[in-house]
């Protein structure tokens, strides 16, 4: 016989969240701490932000590979991949960008609870949106990594041809051209992806994670 939410400690109180009414939070019987103990490492959100072409996806995937090789639980949430499904109803207006990051923040929070090091690669141009994701999780669990590459470098790379289209007026509200990018003022890590080698950037991220006790020391 199933216990009612009121009498079962696995259930929280009835609440209203947005347009959803009479819902409860179901507490897992396996805690985040238990997962960390079993796996030998903590979970965290690595939030890679920067201009299009700054190397966010490249760096996030390289770090992901390094973590995987160490046998750690990790996963990349990539901006373009997410827009193929979860966020394919959103465009690139300010409001849609805000909703895009809100959804990703909630998904990343679930990965965090699942004991996974989740790496997100999104332009996420607005500081307020990044700060909202940071506020979703306990202090220290959101690690902002600024992929710092100048606009000229990003345009020179232009692997998708997006800057050329934006300059030609074919893409509206394009970050760095017709829409602003608000660079992080105090990120947990700033990597000069426009000047440093990929190997050095990966090493900097791994060193940060080791220093913060997210992953085990390799030496």
Task: Give descriptors for this structure.
219 residues; alpha/beta; Rossmann fold; 2 domains; two-stranded antiparallel sheet; 8 helices; globular
Write a structural description.
The protein is an alpha/beta fold. The mean pLDDT is 90. The N and C termini lie far apart (52 Å). Helix 4 (94-113) runs parallel beside helix 5. The chain has helices spanning 32-39, 56-69, 79-83, 94-113, 127-136, 151-157, 162-167, 198-211; strands spanning 15-17, 20-23, 44-49, 74-78, 117-121, 142-147, 189-191. The longest helix has 20 residues, at 94-113. The chain has two domains: 1-30, no CATH class; 31-211, P-loop containing nucleotide triphosphate hydrolases (Rossmann fold).
The number of distinct β-strands equals 7
In terms of DSSP E residues, the strand content is 5-15%
Kindly report the spatial arrangement of strands forming the biggest sheet: 4-5-3-6-7
Unreliable segments of 5+ consecutive residues: none
Global morphology: globular
């Amino acid at each position: 016989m199933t216990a009612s939410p009121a009498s079962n400690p696995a259930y929280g109180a009835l609440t209203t969240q947005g347009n959803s009414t009479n819902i409860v939070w179901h507490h897992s019987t396996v805690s985040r701490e238990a997962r960390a103990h079993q796996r030998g490492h903590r979970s965290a959100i690595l939030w890679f932000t920067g201009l299009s072409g700054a190397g966010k996806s490249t760096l996030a995937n390289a770090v992901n590979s390094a973590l995987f090789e160490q046998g750690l639980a990790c996963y990349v949430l990539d901006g373009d991949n997410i827009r193929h499904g979860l966020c394919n109803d959103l465009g690139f207006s300010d409001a849609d960008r805000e909703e895009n990051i809100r959804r990703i923040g909630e998904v990343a929070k679930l990965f965090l609870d699942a004991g996974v090091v989740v790496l997100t690669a999104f332009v996420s141009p607005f500081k307020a949106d990044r700060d909202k994701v940071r506020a979703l999780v306990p202090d220290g669990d959101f690690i902002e990594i600024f992929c710092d590459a100048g606009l000229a470098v990003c345009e020179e790379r232009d692997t998708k041809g997006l800057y050329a289209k934006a300059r030609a007026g074919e893409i509206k509200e394009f970050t760095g051209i017709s829409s602003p990018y608000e660079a992080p003022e105090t990120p947990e890590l700033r990597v000069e992806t426009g000047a440093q080698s990929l190997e050095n950037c990966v090493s900097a991220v791994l060193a940060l994670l080791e220093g913060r006790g997210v992953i085990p020391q390799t030496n």
